[in-house]
Structures are given as C-alpha cells and as structure tokens.
Amino acid sequence: MDSAPAQEVTELLKQWEEQHPTPGYDPIPTLTRIAEIIEAETENFMKKDPDPFDERHPSRTDPECALGHALKVMFKKDNFMTKLVNDYVRDTFYSRQNITGRDVHKLNVAACRLTLDLMPGLEMSVVFQDNEALIHRLLNWATNSPEPLQCYATGLLAAAMEVQEIATNFRELNAMLVPLMLKRLHELRAKPQDDKPGANLVTPPSQTRHFARFDKKKNNDIKCNGPTPDKKDREKDDGGGGVMLTDEIAPIAKDPETPVKNFNCSAGSPERWGLMSPPARPPPLAIPALHHETSSNSSWVEMETYVIGNIQIHPPTDATKQMLILRYLTPIGEYQEFLSHVFEWNALGLILGYLNVRESRDSRLAFEALKYLAALLCHKKFSIDFINMGGLQKFLEVPRPSVAATGVSICLYYLAYCEDAMERVCLMPSHILANLVEYALWLLECSHDSGRCHATMFFGLSFQFRVILEEFDKQDGLRKLYNVISTLPILGSDEEESRVSDDETCAARQIVRHVCVALRRYFEAHLRIRSAQVLRQQGDNVPDPPPYKASKSTVEEIQEQIEIVQSAWWARWTPVDELLELGGVSLLLQVVGFAYDWNFNGRAETVRSALDVISVCCVAPRVQLLLTDKINMRDADLTTGVHIVLSAADGDIVPEPEVQKAALNVLVNCVCAPAHRGGPSSARFSLTGSSKKKTAVKSYEDVIQKVWESVRTNNGIMVLLSLMMVKSPITDADRLRGLACRALAGLARCPTVRQIISKLPLFTTSHLQVLMRDPILQEKRQEHVMFQKYALELLERVSGKSKHMGAEFETSLANIHRANVVAQTRISYNERQLLQLVAAHLWARGLKDSASALQREAGLPPPAPPAPPHHPPPVYTPSTPVRSRLSVSRASSCGSVLHRDSLDHSHAPHNEDSPMPAVIKLRKLQNQSHSTGSGPPTPGPEQKRSLQKQLSAAGGDRPCSPPRVTLHSIITEYLYNQHALCKNPVVTCPQFNLFEPHKCPEPSSGSLASVAVRGAEAANLLARVVRRETHSLASCRAHARLAHSYFSHVRTLRLQDDDAYFTHTIFHPLQQQLLTATSSGDIRVFNLFTGVEENSYQVHESYIYHMQASRDGCLLLASSTTSWRTLSALWNMKEFEQLFQLDNEEYVEFSKMSEERIIGTKGETASIFDTRTGREFMTLTPAISNQYAKNRATFNPTDELVLSDGVLWDVNTGKEIHKFDKLNQTHSGVFHPNGLEVISNTEVWDLRTFHLLRTVPSLDKSEVIFNPTCSALYAVCSDQDSEERSQFDTSFKTLDPYDYSSIATIDVKRNIYSLSVSRYGTQISLVENMGDFEQVQESCVKLYDVGRKRDHDDDADEEDEEELAAGSDNDDGSDSGSDNVDDLASSLLQRYNAVMELAEGSGSGSASGSASGSGESSRDELERDEEPPRRRPRRMRTRRRAAERRSSDSDADIDFDNIIEFELD
Questions:
Q1: Which residues 6+ apart lie within 8 Å of 714 measured at CB?
Q2: Cβ-contact 1346, 1043 below 8 angstroms
Q3: CB-based contacts of 657, cutoff 8 Å, min separation 6
Q4: Rounded to an integer, what distance in angstroms lies between the CA atom of residue 922 and that of residue 496?
Q5: H-helix segments, 731-883
Q6: Whole-Å CA distances, 853 to 841, 842, 866
Q7: Within a 10 A sphere around the Cβ of 103, how many other Cβ atoms?
Q8: 3-class DSSP state of 1049
Q9: Alpha helices in 1033-1154 (DSSP H)
C-alpha cells in the first residue's frame, strides 16, 4: 500500500492530467506542491543516514521509505516527466503556447527545482541524451540567471557532467565555467559569519531539546566526537566548533511532546559494536561517563548537522549553493586540463576550510568537499601539495561518526594510489601515522558499506609500505579486517542469507572481494619480510629496503619466497597464526566454495585472492593440516579444503585461468613441501597450536603424508592429469601444464601415487615426451621450459632413475626398464678369443714375431689368412666420443638414455628432498690386478659404468684422474652396446661370442604367438587332440580369440508400431526367448526360433534402460526413468506381476551367487534390499563421493564385497575398505569374474594390493560385459549423449579377459544401445538404432552367431533384408525366412560348419587365425569381402542358411571339444 505522500502525489498528477490540456493552465502550483512533498520526504530519508555513495533508487535502499514510493508514482507518469524535462524547463514555454502576462522565470524555477528533487530516481544519461539545447540553457542559467534558478541550474549541470560523454563534448564551456564556480565558492566562503543562516541557529519547536533543563552544569571539556584538536588548531578554527557548549545552541523549550529520535546503527551507534567482535581497546567514540544517567551534554537535534547534515533546496541556503557547486566541480576535477584553474583559485585552501566541520557545522557540505578532494587527488602534483600543506592532518580531524567521515574514506583510497604521496605520508611522525591507521580501522568497523570498501582498498594499496604494515599490526588490524567479512550474512547460515535482499547480497560480495584482495597484499608483504629474514639467517646479505618505500613482488618472486620460507625450520609466524586462530583460512575456503553460486564481475578476483592468501599460509604445517580437514559448506556435505582447491584448479568454480593457476600454486606449496626441514627433527604440529591439549600432533613427514593422501582421496591425480593435457586458453595453457606437472611431480614422492601413474598411458605410451617437445604457444617457451623441467623430474620419480644426458624426450618406461636390465647384466667373454684377436691384430700390423710369441705362449691356433672385409671394421679409440657401432639411435635404444650409476636408486634408500645431480658421473670398469685382461673382472660399486660416454666435462663433475683405457674396457663397452640393441634383453646372459653379433633369445613363454607358431610347425592331428584333451590354457585362449573374431548376422527383429523403439535386450535364462525393452515402457517377448513376438507387457510408463533376469527365470528387474523421477521394480516373469517397486533407484541388479539380495544405486549411494520382501538391508554412502557420471553398484562374485562410486565396501560390516583413485569421470567399475580385479573404465585395479595393474584405452567410456565362460569380454560404448558422441558408438569390441588385449572391433553401422550374451555365449543380441538419441528413425534387434564367418550369400540376404525393412512378408515383423526346418540335425549341421572353419583356421589357416587372435584385428564391417576357406556345394550352403534361421541356444550345450570329436569321427 502506498504511503500518504505517494497518495497525495498521485492525486496531484491526476489533477494535472485532467487540467493541463486546458488553455492557459498554470502548472506552477502543482510543480511546487510536488516539490515540497519530495523535499520533505527526502529530508526524512536522509535522517536515516543512508550510505552517501549509494546511488540506487531510494526504494531499493529502503523498500518502506515514502520517498521511494513517491518517486515510483512520479516515474509511472511518462507524459508528466516528458513535459517536465522537455517543456517546462524551456524559457519560451509560454510564448510557444501563446500565453501572455506570465513570468516564465517562475515556471523554469519550479521545473528545475522539481527536477533537482527527482534526481535520486532519474537516469541522467537518458534525460540529457540528444538534448544539447537543454545543457546550453542550463549553462546560461548557471552563469547569468538570478537565484534560485542559478543554483538549481548548477545542480542539474552537475548531474549532467557525471555522464563522461557530455563532460567531454562540453569541455570548452566547462573551461569557462570552472573558474567562475571557484570564484563563487570563495565569495560564499568569505561571507560574514552573521550573514550565514547557521550563525544564529534557532531550533524549531518540533526539534526542541526537552531534557536540556536537567543539565545543570556547563562542561567546557566535553567536545564533539573526534580527535581532540591541539590548542593551535582551536585558535586556527576561530574558536568555532572545537568546543560544543550545551547552552549556546538553543534556549530551553517547554514543548511537552518528546519526538522519537532515530539514530541509525550504521552511523556508529553502540548497537553497531554488537555486530563486531569486542574491540581490543576502548572505541574512539566512547563518551566520558556522566554523573547522572539522564544528564546529556548534547542532543540529536544539535548533532544532526554534524553527523548527517542536510541540504535545503528551497529556499537555497549558502550551504546549498556551495554543495551544488562542489557537485559540479567533482566530475570535472578528474580532467587534467582543468587542474590549472584549481591551483589558480586555491581550491585546496577552500577544501581544507570545508573540512572543519566544527566551523561549518554542516557534515553534508564537508562530504561534498571531500568528494571534490578525492577527484583532485587523482593528480600526482595535487596529492603531493595536499600532503605538504598538512591536508592529511586536517581530514583526520573530521568527526566520526559522520557522513563526512565516509567521505574521508574515498580520499584515503585515492591518496593510496599515488606512491609518491604515500612515501611522504610514511615519512610523517609516528603519531600521525598511528592516527591515520586508527581512522582507517574505525572506518572498517563503523562506517557505511562504501566507507568499509574504501578503507579496505586503502589498506590493500598501502600494505606495501612497511611502516603502515607495522602500525596496522600494532592496532590489531588483521582481526578488524577479518571481522569485516566474518559478520556478513552471505557467509553465514542459509537462514541468514535468505533474509538478505539481492542488492545487499551484491554489496556484501563486493566487500568480500576487497577484503580478499587486501588480505592477499597483507600476506605478500609479510612474506617478503619473512623470506629476507630466512635468507639472512642462512648467511645471505639481503638488503633491507627503506620502510617508507613501496616494495612489490611478482608472481614468480612470491613463489620463490614461499620456497625459501618452506626450506627453513618452521617457527611461529604471527600473521599466519593469528589468521588461523581467527578462523580466517576456513572462511577463505568457504568463500572459494560459495563463489560457485555467485555471479558478479569480481568473482574471479575474489577467488584468486583468497587462494593466494591460502597459498602463502601453506608455508605453515598447521594450514596444510587444516586443508585436509572438513569444511562446513552450508547445505552441501562436509568437504575438505583440498577438495575445494582441486575444484578451483579444475575450473569448476570459476573457469578463469588466473584462478586455476592460483589453485595450482596452493597444491604445489602443499604437495611439494619438503618432508624434512632444517632445525630440530622432532618438531611436531597440531591444529590447536597448543602442545598441552590432547590433540594429535604431526611431524613434517606425517603432515606431508596426510596431504598426499587427501589429494589422492579427492581425485587429485585425475585433476592434475587432465590439466597436463589442457590446450586452451592458448595463452595460459603452457603455464597451467607446468604447474600441474610440478604438483604431480611433488605428489609422485608418495609411493602409491608413483605406482598408479606409472601404469597410465601418459608414461607407458611416451605421451609425456610428446607433450615435452613443443609448447602450445611459441611465445610461451619460458613456461614450456618449466614444464619440461618438472616433466623430467616426474619421469625420474616414477622410474626411480636420476637425470641423464640427451634423448630426454625419447625415453619411456619400457626403454627405462630395458636399460635397467642391460645395466645389471654382468659381461663375461672367452679371454682366449681375446688373445686370438690380439694376435690377429699384431699379425695384421706386421708384428709377426710378437704375434708368434703370443701364439706360442698362449697355445693359440695359427691365425687364418686375412681376407679383405666387405665392410671395414670400426676403429675404437679413446678419443672418439661417438662411435657408429656403439651409438644407439634415440628412438630405439636406451644406451643413450640412462646411465649405469642411476640404476641403484630403486634398490638403495633415497632421500626425496636431496638435490638430484644434473648429470651422473661416468665411470668405466677397471681392475688393476687384471689390467692384461686375464680373467673376467668383478665390478664393484665404484666400478659401475655408464651406457653413454661423457661428451663434455661441463655437464658433470670431472673425475680426479682420467680412467685407464684398456682393451678390456673397450670390449666391455662394445658388448654392452650390443646388448643394448636387443629387443628383449635379459640379465643372465651366456658368455658373449666376439666372433658373432650378440642377440638375446626371444621370449618363448606360452604366449598366443608362440602357440600359433607351434601350431604351424606341428600341424598334425594328434598334437591338436592332445592339447585339447589336456586343456592347455594357451590353446583355449587361442580358440576363444578366434571364435570371438567372427560374428555372423542371423536374425532381425522389429517393432510393429513406429512410435516406440528398442532400448534394451536380454536372453531368457531358460527358454528360447528374447526379451526386449522399448522406449514406451513395455517389454516384448520374441521367439528365438521363429522371430515372432509372443507377448507384450506394459511394466513402466517411459524409457526402460536396464533389465536383468534371475538365473531361474522367475524374476525380472527393470529400471526406467522419467522427467521427474527414476523407478525400478521387481516383476514375476510368469504372470508379469509387480512384486514391489524401488523408488528413486536408478540402477538395480541381483547379487551374484544366491540372488537373494538386490543392490540399487541412487547417485553415489548404494542400497541393498531383500529379494523376497523388498525390505532395505543396508545403505552404503561414501564419506567422500567420487561423483561418477554412471555409478552402478555391484556385488563381487562371492557377494562379500560391493563396489559403488569407486569405493569398496564390506557387506558384512557395512564399512569402507578402500577408495580407488578416480581417474575417469564415467564408470565406477565392475568386478572381474576371477574376483581379483576391478575394471573401472580404462583402469584395471588389483583387489589384493589395490595397485593399478594396467590401463586399457580401448575400454574408454564402455560398458563391460563378460561372456558366461569368461573367455571373452565385450565392450560397448554406453555414452548415448547426443552432445558427446564416441567414435565407437556404432561398434562393439571384443577383448581377451586374461590380458585385455584387443581381439576385434565390429562395426554395425548403427548406434548400439544394448548388448546381451546368450546363456552359453554362442549368440549375442544387439539393439541397433538409427538416428539421434532423441529422434530414432529406425530401430531393430539383431542376433549374431559367435565364431561363424560370413559368406557372400549372407551379405546378399542382409542386403535384401535392408531393402524389405519397411514392409516384411511376415506379419510378425521378423525375417525368419522361407525354410522352416525345425529338426535338430540342421542346427547341428550349422555348428559343424562353424567348427570346420575353426579347424581349418587352426591347421592350414593358422597364420590367418593367429593374426586375428593377436589383438591387432580391427574390422570396419562384418567380413563382407572375405572369401570362405573353400567353396561348398550350393546345396550345402542352402541347408546351412535354413539352419541358421532356426538357430537358438537349444543346442548350445554342445561345446567345441565335442564338436571337434564329432568331426574327427
């Protein structure tokens, strides 16, 4: 309901609408009355002490205020506002209306007055848009018109100049008007005191001091709120205002009514202190205790002008005129070209005069002067003059609380921008600096929101000056700065936040932003001081900059300073300890977490600054421990600080690279912190900081171990790995990669992490070396060098080897392993052969006597006559650094990759924090007692040598004496390099033969390749029978691989109605039926023999995406989803009656052994139900969720364990056993039927050790289905999201479940929605749909025989089927064919033919069979172009096709062994 003033305004506007079209209508009375109402309500609104810098509409500031209601009513009348702005302010209005005898001046005055009153709700850029004539008119009136029009025009011009475009366009007119306005200010300021309205203040009857008569004494010592001025200052103020006498204001009145005084808390009332923590010292506003509780030396009536002030529009007072002139000068003051007028007319002297509120008695006038001063402080010269003239001391005397004190805050902020001026401030006496910091801290606690923001930004800019920083700490500034945000409701509970309006929320977020920036600069300043202290303690002579000089640090310097502080023994650091005690680190982590839901311009800067503060604080072990603890994130579950930091690093909170870099710096400072620091080794830490309390204390090693574990638990490995692959934004990608690699290198110091990442494709496929080659952006080579540095460090950590020379980018874990084997091989050779070589060498050189003597003494056979060699042998000399035979190519060798000395690090204890040598020293085998080579030497620890000779001594330490080069060392080097060329080197080698090239034997284990070779060599019938009868594992695997390489299409099933499409399919566990689910929620049952649809059951209302039948064929689980909920239910398959439903369960399946239990999945929670009753047994919710996109809880083969959301549970106790590291976003994992492994997307984990066994890239985003005999697994891409199509969504893959090698990739040319395997694994069914996920154009279910090749007739039949897909000859919609031979012999004949092909593949066609079973086969289609092994008679093929159309699982109990026996018979 509108207020009374708003209703009166409504009536006036209604009268105006009715009367203004009347000829000769006089609008002045209406305008005047509306102006009076608006002015009265404006005064009432100002008494509430709103934020003077708040330019929002009054109704948004205070929704209940009458001023806001009245302004809303005004702006609803567009025709009135248009008339007011465009017509009533014209000096030709009456003449254009042909009205004579009226003074247009009065109309212009009334219109300008009302427009000035309406300014709080006007958008001035719209009022003055394309209205230059109005601005020229206002300029004319402001220059030449009499009062009050001149005053009103000046106020409207001030509003117009706030628009930058207008101020620029009228620069010349402003240059003329600025000196005129300054002159007027001097004239108004110079008026005699008696002429000013404030000289003889008479309190109106309604504002009388009713309790002044109780004040019996005149206390001359009681002064207004503010710093006590010195005696000289009181004399300088002409005695006005320094002392407020109680009887000099107003006589005692006898009005019986006492008006209610409303002193707003934001103005500094005692209630305001309740919102803050108790101050450490008495507040500066404290008034001396009075003798009587009713005694008062002042009243709000007297104090109002000092605290809030007022602006009287009609009639305008001198103070009003000066305020409006100052408003005009404020936007002009920022322009450099007008600065000369400022110095010429001594604007600084004027402003300093206005700052004496005790003299002017008008806080509002002082506020306008301070706004003008802030605009002038943008200029460096003016700022320095202001400091030199004692301006700082002047505005520190501005009383507080007051509106003027809020104006001081913006002056402080602008002053801090000028470093030269701040240097002069820092050179002032200490008591002035103390007053400055005290005033700014008061603004932090007791000012308006804008004052708090300005004071916060002042400190953020001035912390770089050490004197300000030290004074800030002396006055308990960190606590007061922290309290600015700790009391904000947006960081409180949900109830507190819900009570805050949108505008208040936005303002509070800006305050949080400025406080975070200030805290960042505060801790960076302290970090500079701390690192310098540490360096001095370590003996470095670090110069100490003057305390009055600004000191800044770049991001790189800050990181270096953090590392310096971390390297030293930890001692208490007051800023970090105080922030911890206040709870500041936890609050900053909450700010980072809450920022996910915030939406404002400074969100990225807020989060980045908060993370930077945490990054600096991470030098303290207590902060690292705090990051691993739970943080209360309001309505979300308790989460750890590490989780919040990882989310920021991954870009989930704010997708800004600067935020990601800040979060990565936090991780680097945590996971890369040294585990051993200088100083006492028994140093231990606790979160409470007190050793007396019974809290768990941690040493350095314990802290870093807990941090590593927390990062792993919160999926830090996956986040860092993804950041190492980032390519955008291109300007920051190199830096992000470098930081992520550094964090991962630090995390790799943890043995568990090292084991996991050693199995990832990043290392196993040399992908890291590919990333190290070139930067993403060539201009960022410096960042790429950092990435290379930490990538090499990561490689060393994972491989356990030290740094090496050359070929860094070609190394891989496979090559490192080969180098390890080569380096550990003991070289031995026949020395008699060596003597023969020597004798031959002497004989070739013409030293026949020596050769004969050697031959005679050693008993050597006579040398063979020399033959000219086809290729000259290499000459090995000590001075040859690189030899053609000895040097190994970088791509294939490890001899140039790793040094022998670095191979013992995996066996000997190694200090992770000790600096690794840049290049390992090169040693050669020497034995003084065997210098002649008599006998194989035994290399000692000091005799180990490298695989590559040192190319230059600059890369490493030069040995004390050069190694002795002997024939033995040359031969050893030669044989080592030969051994390094072996594809599969072994440690235990037979004696090397110097006359033949060395080659290690190829592995002859029971691999499939060797089985194929042996099968080719021994292709006789008896050997194959023996292998089959003895159940050789390798041969069974080879048969299974061959069988699962071929799939032949048998039958196609389609729906009769086009409205639905197939979504899922399973084979009936007992009967010869196929169950298919549709998008409409029904289940169709098809006969496998005939392909006829036998039954249809409506079980759900929408899309069914999963079904599972019990092994006895009595029960069926089905899961469906709708737009509002998910639903799963258990059905009786005989009558298809619903037994019970499981609401909100997204996925359900039976237990593996007994099927007496059902496990359901809802988000990250798994629930176990009783199959008979549907009662819930147990709920399993992980402490830390992995948030997999497709979490599906499942039992292990023995029903003792449950895997849900990547967490392994004990079913008996309901406790977590282990949380697997999350390395993918899609699948939580399934159990291998052997019960020893867990397959989670591409990762295979060992259940016994929880180690990562391997990664299988071909399983990415694929659903894993094992066949019943566990001889093969099928992988089907389950990602049916139309936005993220996988390249395998039209194909399925078969893999060997033993070693996860690929068998075949079968492309069906349609989107695969589901795959199921028959009871004996002889058939599979596929749901193949064409079209998008939401718009399926064609849908069918196809059956395929496993292990049968296709011939051309099958292809022709399938092509005919595709042509007749629109309309089939059969009414059942299937393609059962014309030949309906339903005897068992035809099915057996089909099996016989399939086995014949297998036998041929094992015999004469073994080469092709082994190739298909080697894991390299990948078929784009179903063997369309492959010719059959031999041509059968046409009659045989016709009978076989007839049998295929009747194929089912009825004969599936005939295994391959029995079929082969039948073939032999």
A1: 640, 642, 643, 646, 1184
A2: yes
A3: 729, 731, 732, 735, 736
A4: 69
A5: 733-747, 751-757, 761-764, 767-773, 781-799, 813-823, 831-844, 848-858
A6: 13, 11, 19
A7: 10
A8: strand
A9: 1033-1043
pLDDT at 592 over 70: yes
* pLDDT category of residue 811 using cuts at 50, 70 and 90: low
Q: What sign results for the dihedral spanned by CA atoms 375, 379, 382, 383?
A: positive
- Cα diameter, the chain: 149
Say how far apart CA 815 and CA 892 lie, in whole Å. 8
Cβ atoms within 10 Å of 294's Cβ, excluding its own: 8
Phi, psi of 1246 (to 5 degrees): -90, 125
Measured in degrees and rounded to the nearest 5, phi and psi for residue 1195 equal -85, 160
> pLDDT tens digit string along 1367-1389?
444 444 444 443 433 444 445 44
959 three-state secondary structure: coil
Secondary structure (DSSP) of 76-124 = H-HHHHHHHHHTTT-TTHHHHTT--S--HHHHHHHHHHHHHHTGGG--H
Handedness of CA 484, 487, 492, 496 (dihedral sign): negative
Q: Which of 246, 249, 259 is nearest to 205 (CA)?
A: 259
Q: How far is CA 191 from CA 185, 188, 442, in A?
A: 10, 5, 35
Rounded Cα distance between 176 and 130, Å, is 22
Cα–Cα distance, 275 to 492 (Å, whole number):
13
Q: Can you tell me the mean pLDDT for 147-151?
A: 92
Tell me the residue type at 780.
K
Give me the half-sphere count of Cα atoms (radius 13 Å) on the Cβ side of residue 1236: 6
DSSP calls for 715-741: THHHHHHHHHT---STTTHHHHHHHHH
Only one residue has tokens 């019943």, namely 1268
* pLDDT per residue as tens digits for the range 228-283: 334 333 333 343 333 333 333 333 333 333 333 333 333 333 333 333 333 333 33
Provide the pLDDT for residue 919: 35
Please provide the average confidence, as pLDDT, over all residues in the chain: 77
d(CA 1461, CA 1465): 6
Which of 1381, 1376, 1374, 1383 lies closest to 1451 in space, CA to CA? 1383
Query: Could you tell me if 1103 and 1062 are in contact, meaning their C-beta atoms sit under 8 angstroms apart?
Result: no
Q: What is the DSSP string of 167-213?
A: HHHTHHHHHHHHHHHHHHHHHHHTS-GGGSTTTT----GGG--TTGG
What does the DSSP 8-state code read for residue 901? Answer: G
3-state DSSP: the chain helix, strand, coil percent, rounded to 5? 45, 10, 45
Question: Coil, strand or helix: which one is 152?
Answer: helix
pLDDT for res 1363: 57
**Count of other CB atoms within 10 angstroms of residue 1238:** 25
Residue 809 is classified by DSSP as G
DSSP notation for 1202-1252: EEETTEEEETTTTEEEEEPPP--SSB--EE-TTSSEEEETTEEEETTT--E
Q: Tokens representing 1391?
A: 């099996």
Report how far residue 459's alpha carbon sits from residue 440's, in angstroms, rounded to the nearest whole number.
8
Report whether 1390 contacts 1454 (CB < 8 A): no
pLDDT band at 769 (very low <50, low <70, confident <90, very high): confident
Q: Is 888 left (phi over 0), alpha (psi -120 to 50) or beta?
A: beta
Contacts for 1450 with CB less than 8 Å, ≥ 6 apart: 1072, 1384, 1387
Q: Tokens 């011009």 identify what position?
A: 157
Smallest Cα–Cα separation from 1265: which of 1317, 1209, 1188?
1317
Residue 928 DSSP class: G
Collapsed DSSP state (helix, strand, coil) of residue 1324: strand
Q: Please work out, in degrees rounded to the nearest 5, the angle formed at the alpha carbon of residue 608 by the alpha carbons of 606 and 614.
A: 105
